[in-house]
Write a structure and sequence with these properties.
The protein has 482 residues and is α/β, with parallel strands linked by helices. It has 17 helices and 22 strands. The strands form four sheets. The chain has a nine-stranded mixed beta sheet with strand order 9-10-8-11-12-13-14-15-16, sandwiched between helices. The chain has a six-stranded mixed beta sheet with strand order 17-18-22-19-20-21, sandwiched between helices.
Length: 482
């Protein structure tokens, strides 16, 4: 049995008080009894909706090796017969455990932030680096005030590479989190109008993202999208933070990791990258120009981390888009034949909307099939929302969408901006769109669904997956090279 933490070290990390017959150690850390594995330590965190202390009994039944609980909650826990570490504050204990895990770590630490592409880049790094060493990476999008400490606390002492996603929607959030992570490499994917409702300008967003440079270890690296309009601001911020090694990736002629050739296909892309005085040709298993840009950052980070870059590049041929972030489903239609569903339902901002519409355009339709765009509101854009929604009109035209479903009040501005020759249905939300979409889809179609997460367009994806079975064999469509 491989122990993640010996109990003595865990108690010391959080300066807790052990109660009961303690185990020798734990094999994992959990804050959710639904995913808890036998041997895990259960941290009873109090969240916005639930208090983990209410699930202490469920954690024990699921096989928790011990519980981390707050001193003030002990009376409410009654006579629970389980080993516990008692602390003043459970979230603070998780943070302390994460800090201790980082202190004992021996591998290269990479932190990723940006307005779009964080999770995709993190997963591409996970896949690529796993080909050359033992990798630890954050689960799903665990990039906030509890997700980052949790990912750190789960960091095995002997892993060779660790990848952390760091998010924010207000100034100051990244500053605190990156002090926990202390990366050797800080990668910024893209600055875009996400959360613009909380900021006065794109420059303010860039400054908030640039907080990641403040935690970079001495002698570490900043890796920035050289094609981003905020490059100069980010470059200056990195140097002001004391980082001597600042690198760029992109098509820009002065990029350290430079794209020199790119063929975009409906299912994958073939690229050539110039780096370290040599050219490297590779295939990216997931399609889209945005994916190419993310992979340039991945290759740069792998190089700076001292990894075997050609082996990392080979592994990226098997890269697949994640659920809600471009994952493709080939589904059977009862009328005969198949159609493609592109699930982009996890989240949305103007930049990621454009990338998804580019992906729709690049995906080939079959026979008499059509391209169908299903778009919901982009949130947290404040007073800029009408203009930014309307700005998607030309990308929709460029996508050659034949049919467009729009859901939500913010999408009214886009509905009014679209040319009259495009078939558009603007409805209140996903409940109203669902019957029309399920009825509209035909064999040969390509359907792309995208919105901000809380708009709930993932329910449209679920409805389509319930109604239309997966193709018996998911055969890749013939690629079209742009």
């Amino acid at each position: 049995m491989n122990l993640l933490w010996r109990t003595e070290a865990l108690v010391g990390a959080m300066s807790g008080r052990p109660v009961g017959n303690m185990p020798a150690g734990i094999t994992g850390i959990s804050i959710d009894t639904r995913t808890l594995q036998p041997g895990d330590a259960f941290f009873a965190i109090k969240g916005d909706l639930h208090d983990g202390h209410d699930f202490a009994t469920a954690a024990i039944k699921a096989g928790a090796a011990l519980l981390i609980v707050a001193e003030g909650k002990l009376p409410a826990l009654g006579r629970i017969n389980a080993p516990m570490i008692v602390v003043p504050d459970v979230l603070a204990a998780l943070e302390s455990t994460g800090i201790a895990a980082r202190a004992r770590a021996r591998g290269k630490i990479i932190a990723v932030t940006g307005s779009a592409g964080k999770t995709t880049t993190k997963e591409a790094l996970r896949r690529g680096l796993s080909a050359v060493g033992r990798v630890h990476a954050s689960d799903k999008s665990f990039n906030n005030h509890w997700g980052v400490p949790l990912t750190l606390a789960r960091l095995p002492e002997d892993c060779e590479f660790a990848i952390f996603e760091v998010g924010m929607n207000h100034p100051g959030e990244i500053r605190q989190l990156v002090k926990f992570v202390r990366p050797h490499i800080a990668l910024v994917t893209l600055i875009a109008a996400a959360h613009l409702g909380h900021f006065r300008s794109m420059e303010e967003i860039a400054r908030a993202k640039a907080e990641i440079f403040e935690g970079v270890e001495r002698g570490g690296h900043a890796l920035i999208n050289r094609d981003d309009r905020q490059w100069k601001l980010l470059d200056r911020a990195a140097r002001d933070a004391g980082i001597e090694h600042v690198w760029g990736f992109g098509e820009h002629a002065r990029s350290t990791f430079r794209l020199v050739k790119c063929q975009l296909g409906g299912e994958s892309s073939a690229i050539t990258v110039k780096m370290a005085g040599q050219e490297l040709a590779l295939t990216i298993g997931a399609p889209g120009r945005h994916m190419v840009q993310n992979v340039l950052g991945v290759l740069g980070a792998a190089y700076l981390a001292g990894a075997n870059v050609p082996e990392v590049a080979k592994a990226l041929a098997g890269l697949e888009a994640e659920q809600g972030r471009g994952k493709r489903h080939i589904l059977r239609h009862p009328a005969g034949g198949e159609f493609v569903l592109i699930d982009e339902s996890y989240n949305a901002n103007p930049a990621s909307m454009r990338a998804a519409l580019d992906l729709l355009r690049a995906t080939p339709v079959q026979a008499s099939g059509r391209r169908i765009a299903v778009l919901g509101d982009m949130l947290e854009l404040g007073v800029h929302a009408p203009k930014l929604h309307a700005s998607l009109a030309q990308p929709i035209v460029d996508s050659t969408a034949d049919l467009v479903f729009l859901g939500g009040s913010e999408m009214e501005a886009l509905a009014e901006a679209l040319p009259k020759d495009i078939a558009v249905q603007h409805l209140a939300g996903h409940d109203e769109i669902k019957p029309m979409l399920l009825d509209a889809v035909r064999p040969g179609d390509v359907v792309m669904i995208k919105s901000s997460k809380s708009i709930g367009f993932s329910k449209l994806v679920d409805a389509m997956l319930r109604k239309f079975p997966a193709a018996a064999k998911a055969v890749r469509a013939t690629e079209q090279i742009n």
